[in-house]
Structure prediction request, 469 residues.
Amino acid sequence: MDKIMHELEEILKEPIENTPPSFFMDSLCSLDRNILLKSVREFGTPQYILDREQLQQRALYFSRMMRQYIPNSDFFYAFKCNDLPYLIAGLKEVGFFADVAGIFELQLALELGFEKIVFSSPGKSISELKLAIKHKNRVVINVDNFDELIRIKEIAGTKKMKEKIPLGFRLNSEPFLKGEWSKFGFELEELAKAVKLVNNSPNLEWVGLHFHCSWNKTPWKYIENIKNIGTFLSRNFSAEALKKLRFFDIGGGYYPEKQAVINKIQDKGILLDTIGARRGNKNQPFEEIKFDPYGFSVTQVEPLENFAKGISEALKESIFSLNPEINIYFEPGRFIVSFATHILLEVIAVKKNCVIADGGIHMLGDYKFQEYSFAPIVNLSRFSTDFHRKIIYGPLCDPNDLWGHSYYGEEIRKGDILAVLFQGAYTYCTAWRFIKPIPPYIAFSGGKLILAKPEEDFSQRYPGLISIE
Ligand SMILES: Cc1ncc(COP(=O)(O)O)c(C=O)c1O
Prediction:
């Protein structure tokens, strides 16, 4: 550790080179600065802003790439990643189905008219299960555990229904998914017993299997899981039973390229900027960088095509050989929505060593910029290729209400508009109900700015007041 700290001190002494922000603005941030500033004039700050066309292009990029290698596949957007109805409707338009995890998401998917919905989560309530079963022609439940299966059996009853309730099983199949992920799904060894319970019920039908693994920068976890499950199935189930399966759901977890993540123990904003500058990496200053106890290491996210190829080969070897007709389900979230949303803030105070913006990390519901993440911040009002260090805080009564340690543009002044880029995933949906209202969500679509969701208001924050009167 001492050696690393020494190296770090040395790095910090070196001057930081400028990094042109045009890279983000031109190739990743598809919205131009003038549109972002126009949105601020029309709708104020803080705000989330979505580029709907970019979102749809990204979704099509994912589904076309996967279908090129795995033709019999369907795509289920994971609502939990960003549940803005306007965004979800945009994904439906480009052929995505729905992956839901709770009653509101399920209701939303039904309301938006999705024809195929997968419902996967580890603790479904009775009312959630009842609603899913009521819409069994559209919803398939990925069952997580025996107790849930027994509850479903009880709800289904013994009186024969016209159509059976379709069920998939979530599997927790691999050693690398144990530990903190061990709460999810059945163990492979439990599958035969679960299937038996289904077969003993007149109203239940086993139609699929599911696994999910998160934060994948390479396809290896998918490949290992597919092979492992395939081998297990071939040894433990008859060819006839396996031919009846309709889907194999391989979950989400596709990591977007060029996102910076750094270990919690360090002040990653400074580290990341410093390392990027030192490496002279002018074009991709915030590519994937990891800091580990052995020193700095760089982990690139593999291109999506490598995922498509690797997964397709594993499927051919281990799953299509058992059931050539089976439909492959994908449940991407983060990969699809990260880049198309930005957060816009106004600087309301400038102090000696820091500035305070009008929106805080309640917009994220996460201390991610304090703990493990980095996002480029651009001064839209004074746009230039200069790169500056400055701590950018939000307005919350929390010392960790921090957006970053640096920005691109000319020196920040009071009233300047800042853009925190690429904040579409696990931000709006996880926003905290803390001190400030949850800001509005604006969408840019067909050349127009639209208020996709208004700012949270007083009556939404304090509905209980009505009963006190
Ligand atoms: C079952 C399931 N599917 C899909 C996703 C979406 O994952 P990501 O946003 O990493 O693609 C998640 C996220 O936790 C999940 O639990």
In short: Residues 78, 80-81, 99, 120, 212, 214, 251-254, 331-335 surround pyridoxal-5'-phosphate (CB under 6 Å). The longest strand covers residues 341-350. The CA atoms of residues 264 and 371 lie 5 Å apart.
